[in-house]
């Protein structure tokens, strides 16, 4: 079969099945083979790699993954795409199609059942509306995944990779960098998709760390501090923390903690490093 990322082949499939794009599911199918090749090359998959793909669409990326990886599990929510995938991927014995919501699938069970002894990676052109929930769900469950290489909205990718003091730096930056080392691989224009999205996209690779970049005793409290610090971005750190209603300490006590940590109380959350947030979460109550 011709490469499914070909615009002509994709149009034939859409016509044959009278498929209609579902805006609510964020369906934008990749039709640029150069971008697809970049995703495959930078995901560094091989015969011993088990790949989880979320939102395979008509199977453009799935096809390319199956030709490189040992096994691919493609999870698709849209009922109308299942018969299309069954046809387009019929020649690939190493592909398993799961018709389900990726946020409801027991990923640990999938990994244990389908990828025994394999290096497991996630590679996908993610529907933009579930980008953050999907990625954080994969990371927070601490699945045995070595990397996540995904196409997402460019703005979100920039936030994931941002450093302290940069305009895109925020709670998402810290959450992603707590678990992974992110790297934007490529930016992708709307004309590489059918239909064209209204925003630019980016391919980002997240290499999952063996352990979080900082060690914290209370992970829940750590992320509460991060959330509070960015909850009111224009407020100083001391005001943001004292106004959050998440801590027992008074405003003066928070000032004292910041002083002990050599963090100026008039700094804002977007200037703090992950290390500083870790120290702050350990000291605040």
CATH topology of the largest domain: Rossmann fold
Strands side by side in the biggest sheet: 4-3-2-5-6-9-7
CATH architecture of the largest domain: 3-Layer(aba) Sandwich
Overall number of strands: 9
Low-pLDDT runs of 5+ residues are none
Shape: elongated
Report the biggest beta sheet as strand number plus sense, adding barrel if it closes. 7 strands, mixed
Q: Per DSSP, what share of the residues sits in E-state strands of 2 or more residues?
A: 15-25%
Structural class: alpha/beta
Question: Quick check: average pLDDT?
Answer: 94
Count of separate DSSP helical elements: 12
Termini Cα gap: 61 Å
The helix-strand sequence is HEHEHEHEHEHEHHEEEHHHH
What Rg is obtained from the alpha carbons, in whole angstroms?
A: 21 Å
* Count of domains: 2
Helix content: 25-40%
Question: Any idea of the CATH class of the largest domain?
Answer: Alpha Beta
CATH superfamily of the largest domain: Vaccinia Virus protein VP39
Descriptive overview:
The chain has 285 residues and is α/β, with parallel strands linked by helices. The protein folds into 2 domains: 7-208, 3-Layer(aba) Sandwich (Rossmann fold), CATH 3.40.50.150; 219-283, rRNA adenine dimethylase, C-terminal domain (Helicase, Ruva Protein, domain 3, Orthogonal Bundle), CATH 1.10.8. The protein is 39% helix and 18% strand. It has helices at residues 7-17, 33-43, 60-66, 82-88, 107-114, 131-140, 154-161, 171-179, 219-231, 237-243, 251-260, 274-283; strands at 29-30, 49-54, 71-76, 95-99, 119-125, 147-153, 180-188, 193-194, 201-208. The chain has a 7-stranded mixed β-sheet, sandwiched between helices. Strands 1-8 form a two-stranded antiparallel ribbon. Helix 6 packs parallel to helix 8 (171-179), helix 9 (219-231) crosses helix 12 and helix 10 (237-243) crosses helix 11 (251-260). It is elongated and about 70 Å long.
């Amino acid at each position: 079969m011709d490469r499914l990322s070909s615009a002509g082949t994709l149009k034939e499939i859409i016509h044959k099945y009278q498929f209609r794009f579902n805006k609510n599911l964020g369906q934008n199918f990749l039709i640029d083979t150069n971008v697809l090749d970049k995703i495959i090359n930078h995901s560094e998959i091989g015969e011993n790699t088990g790949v989880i793909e979320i939102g395979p669409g008509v199977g453009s990326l799935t096809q390319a993954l199956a030709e490189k990886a040992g096994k691919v599990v493609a999870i698709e929510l849209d009922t109308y795409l299942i018969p299309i995938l069954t046809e387009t991927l019929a020649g690939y014995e190493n592909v398993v199609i799961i018709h389900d919501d990726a946020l409801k699938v027991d990923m640990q069970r999938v990994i244990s059942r389908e990828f025994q002894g394999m290096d497991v990676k996630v590679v996908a052109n993610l529907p933009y509306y579930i980008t953050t929930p999907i990625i954080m769900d994969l990371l927070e469950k601490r699945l045995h995944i070595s990397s996540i290489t995904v196409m997402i909205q460019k703005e979100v990718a920039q936030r994931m990779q941002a450093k302290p003091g940069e305009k895109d730096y925020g709670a998402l930056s810290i959450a992603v960098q707590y678990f992974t080392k992110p790297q934007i691989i490529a930016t992708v224009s709307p004309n590489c998709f059918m239909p064209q999205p209204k925003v630019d996209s980016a391919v980002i690779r997240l290499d999952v760390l063996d352990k979080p970049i900082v060690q914290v005793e209370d992970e829940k409290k750590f992320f509460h501090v991060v959330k509070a610090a960015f909850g009111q971005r224009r407020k100083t750190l001391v005001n943001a923390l004292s106004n959050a209603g998440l801590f027992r300490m008074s405003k003066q006590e928070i000032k004292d903690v910041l002083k002990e940590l050599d963090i100026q109380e008039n700094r804002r959350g977007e200037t703090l490093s992950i290390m500083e947030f870790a120290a702050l979460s350990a000291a605040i109550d």
